[in-house]
Design brief:
With about 230 residues, the protein is mainly α. The chain has helices at about 10-25, 35-40, 45-70, 75-100, 120-145, 145-150, 155-185, 190-200, 205-230. The chain has one domain (about 10-230). The protein has 9 helices and no strands. The chain is globular, with a radius of gyration of 21 Å.
């Protein structure tokens, strides 16, 4: 389902911001001065790949929304601007957390040590998750409110409904993660920050379940349409 094929100025601006966010991931990297320096930088390949994939996922969700619905009104511009602002903020806790978790095990020199401040990092990271996917929820709610003007088909309505739910699930994980961190701070136990991070491992299964339910909804819609055609 794609309603627009030309790239608008809003999409072009958004792509530039995402490109800048990716630049921020590598802005601190220096040209290797010797083979040892190069070898140390190569140890950061996996953390960088994970960070790159996360930003690309957010970009994909962003472009899918604008490709499918093409809304450009004041509300969309405002929410989109907020989303882009948060993405730029989100890069720093994402980078710190990813390198902090994987840098030491991979032997990356200069990797940050999370230590007792891991709860602060998780609060920043999870706050970014909530704000980013919360913004997507607002965008999809707006598209739902404009569904008649967009003349969405029944199949497109199903896609819209489950896409919105996917972002609600992502934002909800962030909210729960923040809650776990706050409980840990209240009881002065750093292990809660660990569980707040591990919680994001549920992202895959939860989205897999949501995708499965979306597939079932589409299948039921096809069967209903086939049954209606058979009665004609």
């Amino acid at each position: 389902m794609e309603r627009r094929h030309e790239v608008t100025r809003l999409e072009g601006f958004s792509d530039a911001v995402f490109g800048f966010a990716l630049t921020l991931l590598v802005v601190s990297l220096e040209v290797p001065k010797d083979i040892d320096h190069l070898a140390n930088q190569m140890k950061g390949f996996l953390p960088f790949a994970l960070m790159f994939a996360m930003i690309c996922w957010i970009w994909y969700e962003h472009q899918r929304y604008f490709r499918n619905y093409g809304l450009q009104d004041a509300w969309v511009i405002a929410v989109n601007s907020f989303l882009l602002f948060v993405v730029l903020f989100y890069v720093y806790p994402l980078k710190f957390l990813t390198i902090g978790l994987l840098g030491r095990p991979l032997g990356l020199e200069g990797a940050p040590v999370l230590g007792a401040q891991s709860d602060v990092v998780m609060l920043l990271y999870s706050s970014g998750v909530v704000m980013i996917f919360g913004a997507f929820v607002l965008l999809y709610r707006h598209a739902w409110s404009r569904r008649e003007a967009l003349a969405l088909t029944p199949a497109e309505l199903v896609t819209l409904r489950f896409s919105k739910r996917a972002h609600i699930l992502s934002a909800s994980l962030g909210v729960v993660s923040i809650g776990i961190v706050l409980i840990g701070r209240a009881v002065h136990n750093d292990i809660y920050a660990f569980f707040a991070g591990i919680l994001y491992a549920l992202m895959g299964p939860i989205h897999g379940w949501n995708g499965y339910m979306a597939g079932k909804a589409h299948e039921q819609l096809r069967k209903a349409a086939a049954a209606a055609d058979a009665k004609r």
